[in-house]
What we know:
This protein is mainly alpha-helical. It contains 18 helices and six strands.
Amino acid sequence: MKNKKLWGGRFSQTTSTITEQISKSLHFDVRLYRHDIQGSIAHARMLAKNGIISQEDCNAIIAGLQTIQKEIEEGTFPFNEKLEDIHMNIEARLTELIGDAGKKLHTARSRNDQVVTDVRLYLKDAIKEIEKLCINLIQILIKKAEEHTHVIMPGYTHMQIAQPVRFSHHLLVYAWAYLRDLTRLRNAYNATDVLPLGSGALAGVNYDTDRHYLSDELQFGAVAHNSMDAVSDRDFIADFLYFAAMAGMHSSRLSEDLIVWSTAEFNFIKLSDSVTTGSSIMPQKRNPDVAELIRGKTGRLYGNLFTLLTVLKGLPMTYNRDLQEDKEPLFDSIDTVKIVLEAMAEMIDNVSVNDEVTRKAIYKNFSTATDIADYLVMKGIPFRQAHEIVGAIVKYCEQYNKDFFTLPLNEIQSFSEAFAADVYEYLDPEKSTERKKSYGSTSLESIENQIKLLKEKLHEFSH
């Protein structure tokens, strides 16, 4: 029978329609076809090398699998949803093509170790692609920072103007954040780079196999040490989903900054036409849709992580069918984080900065008040007392509608005799950034050092 289950020997009745519907995964795990074939070819070669199957059968299996890959890629493969998943479809088709030799492929393996091997192979390839996208985005942030080291803007806490900072300093916040994401991604790759194939269903197999040969053939960095752990471990997927959630969070925060800065009220930047859209009713609108969609997609990335953690939390050892639910959140996060990183790179690469607007904005909300407090400290006044003096000046300016930055010297001195004419150097917001001397600060020297260090660290990731 064409629709007979490959595992159906002990059953006398067919599965119900609802069982078929809830069991099938072909619609999403079909993307594993290439890695399933890759793993099966390596498995067949190992079986032949160790004399478990003949070389003739091995050659037939490999030829059949190569034919199947060609059929899938050309769109002629006869998919059968009754066979549940891509793995069973490939195995059934292999037997159709080469006869009994195809039935020998599953010797010394289980779907339990086969499927998780496919997922690990697939994720390793996906991580390599995502790593390139992450590196590219960091490079664009660095380039944009280098182009705008001269631009000074307000830095905010509590969404209130706090102190002047360089625009480049703000951009490099995200370069460092994405660099941390790269580290998480590399850790996820290392966790994924462990071979489970050859563990069987859970206890190992009754054949003299060579799992280290399989590891070399499939280019895994390590072999799982415990067969029960090998088939039940999904930590590596959780590691990747955590990376994706964090990269999404960083992208969402950057998107929020871009959205706020591009409003008419701020007007610090202009997003390019390529990443904005119009309104169906209001002709004047330029909506930051790409940034908003990135911000929204972060919820999906969070949800996928929690989906997997919830699936795993109550499972007894070892394999349970619940683990079929690991793939959809994984696949969705792979697709989502890719498009988020690509879209963010395009937004940053094409953003333009209204540096005259940002410069005027630093003359608001007493942005150099802390500089004046530090000025008094350098004159010998304790910081808490200096803080109180400057607070009184701010209150005075607000009460009498005075300009904090050009307040006459005699009025400033009425608050403390420590003030002298040189106070105006400290009142000037455009000079504030260069007074920052601490490591990692917003001074030009610090920005240049950060850019140099980021490039060095990226070079390490790239090699």
